[in-house]
Structures are given as structure tokens and as C-alpha cells.
């Protein structure tokens, strides 16, 4: 990159407005990489200054526990969006998984309930994947259908009522601690590490980026796009399954009304982090940033006593501003 | 006939248009007279489209002047062109498929009734009058998507007239029409001449030019070659004006003795697109595939590669008959396809150079699904270097590379996948002259490694300069085969335009 003032000096001798060296140096920082962490630190400082409780171990634990469900489904959403798709069904799947998990736990015991719950998520994802990759229904439509139908199924299976009477030991998943860290946060953290590895180090991960960047070129490069697309939605269903089990444990019952509009927050987390909504660009690290921003925002606004109504306005604005900044940066290059 | 009497309605003088790295038009002169068909001729890339786009306001010229009725004008955008009475009918028609004929014709200029609503009756009546005046039997209330392509074209022409256009530009209008439809179009064009409309007509089909044209202007490499009266100029003279140029040196062709047969295609057909195609390809050989746009060349490559289904035919790779079902299958058999549309089908723009290069060979350094990044990097570096890709950073997005370097990345991908049958579709389209020569040199290196290349190209100099043998396609069939020694631009173009000579068995005789 050439300094603009040099170019002008060669041409006409018009006075060039020069920015101060500090502004110049700030501008040259690699904002693509440090932008989000910087925003996070700024937010934390802001909330911490107004309400010092923000920094307490209890509150940090709360934040971690609160965001872990969103974190888990956002991992699946990252896979879907990176592949140039989308998964609108993850919110409803939380409810379906919760109902299935609770009922199965009553019938087959603790482990059976957990396993069947997670499998239910995978199965729904497989169904999404087959519709999208085999029947070629657009991902938006296929998963929109699943969003409505899975909620309906959850309500049907449960008769619209919570399923109670789950074993007491099950509570540890949602409410327990590993040292100072809540168990849900541990599960989310491990999931992030695994997903990071899959996306950056495995052939499957590479093919997801390839499909998302240019599906036609990916097919002509010999990638079995049908197979890997199905797999993407199975993965998204898997994480919805894990999240559903954790959530069921937190409320210690099967609830058919869980997870409403969570799919939209998971999409928001992906794009706030800098993932491209049309696929091919983004990653698990960026999604983590998006999840942290959303989580810290809602916690911090609570602590400084902003009403939840106003919080929605702020979150909505943040989604749009984050994507706008990303696009503006891309245009400038 | 009325060419001499009128002063030019349109004059373009010394038009210059530059694109990064390319001089698309270098001082072109052109004019058009009312009531006259002026044909614009030239090979692909000669600058015809650019000239038309300057005239219709899509590109601003870098130099030169445009005069309408003797008055200098500036055309900044398509709307300016419309106000000057210029309408362009492109190959891809600009109609809204879901709307009716009348709605399309009056789009943006709807007759208004009271209360600011569209006066539909008025609109339909005016459309009916307009169509009748052109002797067209089209229902004004028919939905456009239900019309045939020829009728849609007529609707475009009617629409142009509804704007009171004095100058209508037609860009290869007959490329998509049947013989009967072409006759209808010619009748309409005659009608337009009667109405004193000026017509600029772009076509590759020289037989049409003779029937239709009053004058012809030939462009070559962005330069004006000449403007001649059609009646007193032979087709051969026109062809010579289009192609005559010095070719040597631009094509670094290696002398390699062809080896064993590596690919054999027999009686390959695909409904409505490919008919009974047979040929063979040997190691160390470049087989050029010439023909006009739409002759079925890209479809042939895609059918061999398994990207499109075949209806019948047999493909033999290294003596072994294979029923190629998918690109993945073709790649396993050592076949590679370098697609025509690099941006849409070739590169993955938001993947790094490294990841593009290794995409088709990923399994070679993947163990139980996990990529060995070190091996991958070494591998990518080696092939990037051997392709002389001019970027120091393999982690850069391909998006930021020039067209030539993007093409090298695609070639590197196939090289790294150990392919030895390369299907190159327009390998040098849209890349600058220096990069072209590099691509040719790389092709030579592929051949030295024992590969074979089937090269589709619309640039005859490239076909002649690089091929060992040349097949000419027309209408989904092979209509001629020439050796390097036999081939000339004239005889290839002749076959591509007019097909195989009658009472000849060239069509079947090439391969056996």
C-alpha cells in the first residue's frame, strides 16, 4: 500500500490534508484480527466501570453459563452458514430434543435419555440435510419447515406440558461446576475446540469452505457436495442435540417451549463475528467472538439496569452495525 | 440503396477504450446511416462488444467523439443513449419474463389514467397497433416467458420502436434462432429499413451479412481495419480482413512427437446438444476444438468430465472403458477440466491460493480425515513455483490475483492432482498477452510430462498456433478435422460457419 500523500506529492502540489501520526498508526493496525477482541475489552471496561460487580467470579460464571447454549447452537450455525446454507431449525430443535431427552430418560434412565436426546438432534439434522442436498430444497425453506414442524412435534409428544420427574443426578450437567467453571461452559469450550479443529484441520472442514465459496467450482474440483452438505446439517443437529440436553438439565424437565428465536441469535453471533452470510468466509473463532459480544452485552446491560425492552433495540443495532463495518472494510480494500 | 443520399445519423471518431492491461479500442471510426444495415464484423475479442457498449452508454470512452445528426454528444449512461434514440438488443434479452408483452413494452413509460393508475386498455391497444405495424402476430396480453425466444426478440424490437428509436443495435440476433425464425427477423429488419431506422448488426455468420448488410466494418484487435460496401465484397475478402495478421512468436509451440492414445471418445451424444462425437487424444498432443459460440464445445468437455449426463457413447481412458459418472470420478481417472468461466466455475475466490491448489489432491495428505498442513504447504509451494504464480503469499485469497494468475492457480490445482488428460476450455480468455504466452509455455510443459490436452478456443490464432490437430464443431457435431499443416484460418472459419461440405464424408471419416 502506498501512502496517499506520496502519490499527491508526485502530481500536483495541492496541499494534502495529513492526519496525525497517531491516527495514522492506529489506522494501520490489523483491525480484521484485533477488531472484535478490542470491542470485547472495551465493552468489559465500560460495564465494569459502571458496575464493579461485573468482574465478580459469580457474575463471570453466570455469563459463561448463560451463553453456553447459544454458543453450542452457534457452532452448528457456523458450519451451515460457512457452507453457504443456513439452519433456521436449531431453536425449535432445542425444544424437540428436550422433550425427547426427558421422555427417554424416564423410560430408559439417565444415560439412555442423554444419548437419545443427542441422537434426536442428529436425526433432525440428517432430515434437513437430505432435503437440502438430495431433494435440493433451498436451505432456508427446508430448515424453516423444520423450525415449525419440530416445535409442533415437541408440543405433540409432550401434550404441551413440561415433562417432570427427571433423576436428580441429571442436574449436574446444567448446574454443576468444574472448579470455578460451570459445566455447560466446559461443554461449550470443548465443543469449540473440536469444531475449530474440524474446520481448520480436516478435509471435511476444508470442503465446507470450498462449497461455501463456490459450489459449482467445488463440484468440478471433485468434491462430493451432496455428501458433505448432508454432513453439515447433521453436525448442526448434533450441536442442537447437545445444547438441548444441557438446557433440559438446567430446567430439569422436558420443555416444549424452549429455544424460541434462538436460531436468530445464533445467526447473529455468526455474522457479528464476521462470518459472511453467503458462505465461504468466517470461522469458529469469529463465531466465538460474536457469542461473547451478545452474551456480555445482555449481561452488562442487565447489570447497569437497562430494561430488556431497550436491550433488544441495542442488540438489533449491533447486528446491523457489525455487518456494515465488515462490508465497508471489504469495499475499501 | 439509400446509403449515399443521407449524411450519417451517427458518427463515432477515434474512439479509444482502455481496460487494465488491455487496449480494447484504439481509435475506431464508425458511422451509421438512417435506413441502412451496417454490419460490424470481427473475431471474438476484436472489440465489437466494447464499441457497442460505448455507444449504448455502458462504458464511457477514454478518447474520441460521438456525433448524432452532426452534433457532438456525451453518452454517460444507458438512459442518455435511450434519449438519443439508441436501443440495443442483446443476446440475453432484457424482458421481464413474468410480465405480459404490453407491460414489457411500456415498462417505465406506462400510459397513465386518472388517479395515477396505469391505463391498461390504452397500453394493450397501443401494443396491438405497434405489433400490427410490424406485421407481428403476438398477443399483447401473453406472458413473455411463454413466448418462444424468437417472439421475445420481436417484442424487444417493438419495445425499441416504442421509444421512437432511430438506431437499433442487434448483437448476434440469429445465434439462437431457427431458419424459419431468421426469415421472420429479416423481414422485420427490412420493415425497419423502410421506416428509416438505422441498424447496426453484429454477426459471425457471413452468409447473413451478404443477405442483409449494406455496408460492413471490420475490427481486429481493437483497431479499425476497414469499412466496405457489402455488395461488392466477397465473403473471402471479409474473412481475410477479419483474420489477417502475423502469428509467429506469440505461440511458443514445442515439437513433441505424439505418444500412445490416452483418451478415446466414441459416438458421444447428449440430447439436443451433442451428436455422435468421436475422436481420440494421444499423449504429448494438443487437440484444438474450434467452432462458434454455441457449437457444443463446452458441452463436449463437460460431458467427458462427468459434469453433465451423457445419453450414449463410450469413453476409453488409457485403453480402459470407463463410465464416468461425476467430476470426482473423472478426476480419479486423471482427467482435468479448466472451465470456460473462470470466476463461476474455476477458482474459489475466497479460498487462499494454497487451498485452491491442493483442493483436488487433498486426500493425498489426509490421514483419517486430518490434513497434514506441513505436507500440504510443501506441496502447494512446489506447484505454485512450477506455475510461476506471481504472489509471495500463498495464504492470499485468489480473489486478489489477476486473471492470468488465477488461471495458473487452476492449472496448478490439476497438475497437483496428477491429471494427465487436460480439457482446457478457453484457457486464455480475458488474460493479457504476456500471461497468455506463459499459459502456452505451461501447456508445453504439461505435454513434456506425458499429458495430453484438448483445447477449446474461439481464438483462431490460438487454435492454429498451439494445436497438433484441429476438430471443428458446428451444431453439436464434428464437421471437420485438420492437421496442423492443413489448417488455415480461412478453412476453419469456413467449416465453423458453413458446416461440412456436402457430398463429403469428413464428418464420419476423421477418427477411424
From the structure above, extract its key features:
heterodimer; A: mainly alpha; two-stranded antiparallel ribbon; globular; B: 512 residues; alpha/beta; Rossmann fold; 3 domains; 6-stranded mixed β-sheet; 18 helices; 33% helix; disordered N terminus; disordered C terminus
Can you give a write-up of this model?
The complex is a heterodimer of chains A (333) and B (512). Mean pLDDT of chain A is 89; it is low at 1-17. Chain A has 14 helices and 2 strands, in the order αααααααββααααααα. Chain A has helices spanning 4-10, 21-27, 31-50, 57-82, 90-134, 139-158, 171-175, 183-201, 203-213, 215-220, 225-251, 262-273, 284-303, 308-332, and strands at 177-178, 181-182. Chain A has a domain at 56-260. The radius of gyration of chain A is 22 Å and the shape is globular. In chain A, 49% of the residues are buried. Chain B is of the alpha/beta class. Chain B is built from 18 helices and 22 strands. In chain B, the strands form 5 sheets. Chain B has a 6-stranded mixed β-sheet, sandwiched between helices. In chain B, strand 1 (10-19) and strand 2 (22-32) form a beta hairpin. In chain B, helix 13 (373-386) crosses helix 14 and helix 14 (403-416) packs parallel to helix 15 (433-448). The radius of gyration of chain B is 25 Å and the shape is globular. Chain B starts with 9 loop residues before the first strand and ends with a helix. The model of chain B is unreliable at 1-5 and 503-512 (pLDDT under 50). The chains are: A mainly alpha (333), B alpha/beta (512). The A-B interface holds A 201-204, 206-207, 209-210, 213-214, 216-224, 276, 280-281 and B 305, 307, 326-328, 330-332, 337, 339, 344-351, 355, 359-360, 362-363, 366, 369-371, 373, 413, 417.
Amino acid at each position: 500500500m502506498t501512502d496517499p500523500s506520496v502519490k499527491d506529492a508526485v502530481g500536483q502540489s495541492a496541499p494534502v490534508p495529513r492526519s496525525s501520526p497517531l491516527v495514522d498508526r492506529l489506522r494501520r493496525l490489523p483491525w480484521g484480527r484485533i477488531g472484535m477482541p478490542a470491542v470485547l475489552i472495551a465493552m468489559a471496561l465500560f460495564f465494569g466501570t459502571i458496575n464493579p460487580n461485573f468482574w465478580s467470579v459469580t457474575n463471570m460464571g453466570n455469563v459463561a453459563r448463560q451463553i453456553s447454549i447459544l454458543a453450542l447452537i452457534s457452532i452448528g450455525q457456523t458450519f451451515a452458514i460457512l457452507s453457504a446454507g443456513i439452519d433456521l431449525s436449531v431453536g425449535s430443535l432445542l425444544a424437540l430434543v428436550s422433550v425427547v431427552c426427558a421422555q427417554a430418560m424416564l423410560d430408559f434412565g439417565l444415560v439412555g435419555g442423554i444419548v437419545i436426546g443427542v441422537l434426536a438432534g442428529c436425526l433432525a439434522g440428517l432430515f434437513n440435510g437430505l432435503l437440502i442436498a438430495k431433494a435440493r430444497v433451498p436451505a432456508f425453506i427446508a430448515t424453516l419447515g423444520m423450525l415449525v414442524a419440530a416445535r409442533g412435534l415437541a408440543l405433540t409428544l409432550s401434550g404441551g406440558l413440561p415433562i417432570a420427574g427427571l433423576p436428580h443426578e441429571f442436574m449436574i450437567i446444567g448446574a454443576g461446576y468444574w472448579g470455578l467453571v460451570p459445566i455447560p461452559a466446559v461443554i461449550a469450550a470443548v465443543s469449540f475446540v473440536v469444531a475449530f479443529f474440524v474446520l481448520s484441520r480436516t478435509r471435511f472442514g476444508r470442503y465446507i469452505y470450498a462449497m461455501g465459496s463456490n459450489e459449482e467450482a467445488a463440484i468440478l474440483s471433485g468434491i462430493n457436495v451432496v455428501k458433505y452438505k448432508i454432513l453439515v446439517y447433521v453436525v448442526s443437529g448434533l450441536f442442537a442435540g447437545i445444547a438441548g440436553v444441557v438446557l433440559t438439565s438446567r430446567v430439569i424437565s422436558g420443555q416444549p417451549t424452549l429455544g424460541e428465536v434462538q436460531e436468530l441469535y445464533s445467526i447473529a453471533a455468526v455474522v457479528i463475528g464476521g462470518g459472511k452470510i453467503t458462505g465461504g468466509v468466517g470461522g469458529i473463532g469469529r463465531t466465538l467472538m460474536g457469542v461473547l459480544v451478545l452474551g456480555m452485552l445482555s449481561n452488562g446491560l442487565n447489570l447497569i439496569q437497562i430494561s430488556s425492552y431497550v436491550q433488544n433495540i441495542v442488540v438489533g443495532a449491533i447486528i446491523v452495525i457489525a455487518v456494515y463495518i465488515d462490508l465497508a472494510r471489504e469495499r475499501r480494500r | 440503396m439509400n446509403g449515399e443520399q443521407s449524411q450519417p445519423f451517427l458518427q463515432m471518431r477515434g474512439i479509444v477504450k482502455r481496460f487494465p492491461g488491455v487496449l480494447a479500442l484504439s481509435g475506431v471510426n464508425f458511422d451509421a446511416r438512417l435506413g441502412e444495415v451496417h454490419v460490424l464484423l470481427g473475431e471474438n475479442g476484436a472489440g465489437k462488444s466494447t464499441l457497442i457498449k460505448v455507444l449504448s452508454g455502458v462504458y464511457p470512452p477514454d478518447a474520441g467523439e460521438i456525433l448524432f445528426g452532426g452534433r457532438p454528444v456525451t453518452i454517460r449512461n444507458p438512459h442518455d443513449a435511450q434519449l438519443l434514440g439508441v436501443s440495443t438488443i442483446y443476446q440475453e434479452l432484457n424482458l421481464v419474463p413474468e410480465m405480459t408483452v404490453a407491460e414489457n413494452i411500456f415498462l417505465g413509460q406506462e400510459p397513465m389514467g386518472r388517479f395515477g393508475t396505469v391505463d391498461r386498455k390504452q397500453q394493450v391497444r397501443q401494443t396491438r397497433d405497434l405489433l400490427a405495424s410490424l406485421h407481428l402476430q403476438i398477443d399483447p396480453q401473453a406472458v413473455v416467458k411463454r413466448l418462444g425466444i424468437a417472439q421475445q426478440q420481436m417484442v424487444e424490437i417493438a419495445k425499441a420502436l416504442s421509444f421512437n428509436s432511430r438506431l437499433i443495435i442487434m448483437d448476434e440476433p440469429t445465434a439462437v434462432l431457427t431458419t424459419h425464425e431468421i426469415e421472420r427477423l429479416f423481414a422485420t429488419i427490412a420493415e425497419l429499413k423502410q421506416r428509416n431506422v438505422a441498424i447496426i448488426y453484429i454477426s459471425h455468420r457471413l452468409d447473413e451479412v451478404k443477405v442483409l448488410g449494406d455496408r460492413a466494418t471490420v475490427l481486429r484487435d481493437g483497431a479499425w481495419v476497414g469499412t466496405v460496401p457489402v455488395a461488392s465484397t466477397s465473403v473471402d475478402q471479409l474473412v481475410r480482413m477479419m483474420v489477417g495478421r502475423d502469428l509467429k512468436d506469440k505461440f511458443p509451440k514445442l515439437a513433441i512427437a505424439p505418444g500412445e492414445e490416452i483418451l478415446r471418445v466414441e459416438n458421444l451424444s447428449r440430447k439436443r446438444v451433442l451428436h455422435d462425437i468421436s475422436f481420440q487424444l494421444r499423449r504429448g498432443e494438443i487437440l484444438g476444438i474450434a467452432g462458434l459460440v454455441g457449437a457444443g464445445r463446452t458441452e463436449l468437455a463437460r460431458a467427458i468430465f462427468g459434469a453433465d449426463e451423457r445419453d450414449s457413447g463410450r469413453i476409453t481412458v488409457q485403453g480402459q472403458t470407463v463410465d464416468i459418472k461425476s467430476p470426482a470420478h473423472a478426476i480419479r481417472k486423471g482427467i482435468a477440466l479448466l472451465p470456460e468461466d473462470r470466476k463461476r466455475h474455476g477458482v474459489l475466490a475466497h479460498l487462499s491460493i494454497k487451498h485452491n491448489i491442493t483442493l483436488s489432491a487433498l486426500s493425498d495428505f489426509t490421514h483419517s480425515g486430518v490434513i497434514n498442513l506441513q505436507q500440504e504447504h510443501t506441496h502447494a509451494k512446489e506447484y505454485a513455483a512450477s506455475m510461476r504464480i506471481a504472489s509471495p503469499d500463498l495464504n492470499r485469497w485468489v480473489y486478489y490475483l489477476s486473471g492470468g494468475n488465477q488461471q495458473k492457480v487452476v492449472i496448478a490445482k490439476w497438475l497437483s492432482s496428477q491429471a494427465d488428460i487436460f480439457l482446457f476450455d478457453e484457457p486464455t480468455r480475458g488474460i493479457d498477452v504476456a500471461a497468455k504466452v506463459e499459459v502456452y509455455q505451461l501447456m508445453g510443459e504439461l505435454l513434456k510430462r506425458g499429458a495430453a490436452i484438448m483445447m477449446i478456443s474461439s481464438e483462431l490464432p490460438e487454435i492454429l498456433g498451439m494445436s497438433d490437430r484441429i476438430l471443428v464443431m458446428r451444431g453439436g457435431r464434428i464437421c471437420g478435422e485438420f492437421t496442423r499443416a492443413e489448417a488455415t484460418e480461412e478453412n476453419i472459419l469456413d467449416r465453423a460457419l458453413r458446416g461440412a461440405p456436402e457430398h463429403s464424408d469428413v464428418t464420419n471419416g476423421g477418427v477411424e
